[in-house]
Amino acid sequence: MPYPFKLPDLGYPFNSLEPHIDAQTMEIHHGKHHAAYVNNLNAALEKHAAFQGREVDELLRTLSSLPQEIQTAVRNNGGGHYNHTLFWQWMTPGGSREPSGALAQAITAEFGSVDKFKETMTQAGMTRFGSGWAWLTLDGGRLKVLSTANQDNPVMDGLLPVLGVDVWEHAYYLKYQNRRADYLKAWWNVVNWSKVADTYEKARQHAGAKTR
Ligand code: MN3
């Protein structure tokens, strides 16, 4: 849905990712941080009717075509809205399921094993200095782990994310304080692998369409 963008429902109760992600963090992260990205994105587009028909991913792919005075606001807040909308879906209560099917095969082919992949993505999150995200993306038909600063994401480089994890302090500080490693270790317990399989399939179709 394009402008005016709306805060999507979380899809599960704030406390349902306990003990891995605490309820208060989820409530503030969704109800304050994500809500602010949505409100600020709408505010940026308010006086720019020509761009109000664009979906958020389209805005992020076409940042350089936007009026210069709103590019930074759309990048940060549109990125924030896009990233968090997926992030909530990439988590699920009672997780601990492993990838299966084509996704598991691709992960094993690229990284050697699911555990090696988790190590690689955790490392990307650990080495991102300051605020940002670690991503699994599909680039040139191959799975690739990378990280971005702030609310940047693979969409801005013409790719689609397969999986992403928020490593801003607001994602973990209440429960884990400065222990980002503990947060990332716990986070793997709530990954929604069936949703990741969906976003992998979308990324494959997107990559296939680009090369045709
Ligand atoms: Mn966040």
Q: Spell the H/E element sequence.
A: HHHHHEEEHHH
Ligands, ions, cofactors = manganese (III) ion
Main sheet: which strands, in order across?
2-1-3
Total count of domains? 2
Strand content: 5-15%
CATH fold field value of the largest domain: minor pseudopilin epsh fold
The number of distinct β-strands equals: 3
Name of the CATH first level of the largest domain: Alpha Beta
Biggest sheet architecture: 3 strands, antiparallel
The chain-level mean pLDDT equals 95
Compute the CA-based radius of gyration: 17 Å
Q: Look at the structure and name the CATH superfamily of the largest domain.
A: Iron/manganese superoxide dismutase, C-terminal domain
- Structural class call reads mainly alpha
Question: In percent, how helical is the residue content?
Answer: 40-55%
Provide a descriptive summary of the structure in words.
With 212 residues, the chain is mostly helical. The protein folds into two domains: 22-89, Helix Hairpins, CATH 1.10.287; 101-211, Iron/manganese superoxide dismutase, C-terminal domain (minor pseudopilin epsh fold, 3-Layer(bab) Sandwich). It has helices at residues 23-45, 56-61, 68-89, 101-111, 114-127, 173-176, 180-187, 193-211, and strands at 132-139, 142-149, 161-166. It has a three-stranded antiparallel beta sheet with strand order 2-1-3, sandwiched between helices. A hairpin with a 2-residue loop joins strand 1 (132-139) and strand 2. Helix 1 (23-45) runs antiparallel to helix 3 (68-89) and helix 4 (101-111) crosses helix 5. The chain starts with 22 loop residues before the first helix and ends with a helix. The mean pLDDT is 95. Bound molecules: manganese (III) ion (MN3). Manganese (III) ion (MN3) is lined by residues 29, 33, 84, 166, 168, 170-171. Manganese (III) ion binds at residues 29, 33, 84, 166, 168, 170-171.
